[in-house]
Design goal:
This protein has 292 residues and is of the alpha/beta class. It is 35% helix and 23% strand. Belongs to the GTP cyclohydrolase I type 2/NIF3 family.
């Protein structure tokens, strides 16, 4: 092989625009919910990207970590500017984040509900880690592929008691102060499982329609959870509920997402260093429980 041929085959550094093309293939913005704010927040499309940092939350601790590591792009699951703002002055925490990113030469890209709905997205990863099989969307995407949509429903190879399955969920999640909360008969058997990474208390109708024995999600408010339990009593107590940390449930997606993006960029002839933040950005620091 000639020197010119060798050089042409060498991996190159992609531009931000080329990374965005790869991200769009994996987690299309068309899968985003109408209320969501996904996509590029900070960054010049022509800028080279040699290092990418993945995290759940665009908070100052994570931004400092990404900039300190020399990343040219921070990809977070949660949006920074989900609700409208009229200033990004550094006197506010969001403005300070934007200034830190720009001054540090680091872009910000958010993949939120598009990463929830896509094949290989947040709920897919959780379901696979928990050993579920025959996965299907809990709430299928309106105009997407049959495999796309919010949440997943699957079955366990062998039924487990609720207590044993909850222990499996607990062991799979990053450690956070709130732990895992469970509602239901400890000795009840579960086989069909519904899961939604992040806040999923708007999907109880879909959960009941799926025939799930147990539903795993985060941020279960009192009234929806109470109503779900009362309704479940009319159906033998099911679905049982397992509430996990919002942050923990979505952090599980990061290593898989980083690997998938790395594989796609490599296939396209690019070489990028991709890291996953190990920062615990769950907002709670400790919890008090009876008898603790």
């Amino acid at each position: 092989m000639s020197t010119d041929q060798t050089l042409s085959a060498s991996p190159s550094t992609p531009t931000l625009a080329q990374v965005l093309e790869a991200v769009e293939e994996l987690w299309p913005q068309s899968l985003s919910e109408g209320w969501d704010a996904t996509g590029l927040v900070v960054g010049r499309p022509e800028s080279p990207v040699q290092r990418i940092h993945f995290a759940v939350d665009p908070v100052m601790e994570v931004v400092d970590e990404a900039v300190g590591a020399g990343a040219q792009l921070l990809i977070t699951h949660h949006p920074l500017l989900l609700r409208g703002v009229n200033t990004v002055a550094a006197t506010s925490y969001k403005g300070q984040l934007v200034h830190t990113l720009i001054e540090g030469g680091c872009g910000l890209l958010t993949c939120h509900t598009n990463a929830d709905s896509a094949v290989g997205g947040v709920s897919d990863v959780i379901a696979e880690i928990l050993g579920l099989e025959d996965l299907r969307p809990l709430a299928p995407a309106k105009d997407g592929l049959p495999e796309e949509g919010i949440g997943r429903v699957g079955t366990l190879p062998q039924a487990l008691t609720l207590a044993d399955f909850a222990a499996r969920v607990f062991s799979a999640m990053p450690a956070v102060a709130g732990g895992v909360r469970v509602a239901g008969d400890r000795d009840g058997l579960v086989s069909t499982v519904a899961v939604c990474g992040g806040a999923g208390d708007s999907l109880f109708d879909q959960v009941r329609a799926s025939g799930a024995d147990v539903y795993i999600t985060a941020d279960l408010r009192h009234h929806p959870a109470s109503e779900a339990r009362e309704t479940a009593l009319l159906n033998g107590g099911r679905p049982y509920l397992i509430e996990v940390s919002h942050f923990a449930s979505e952090w599980l997606w990061l290593p898989a997402a980083a690997q998938t993006l790395d594989n796609l960029l490599t296939d396209r002839g690019f070489e990028v260093d991709i890291a996953v933040s190990g920062r615990n950005t769950d907002p709670w620091d400790f919890v008090l429980t009876p008898g603790a």
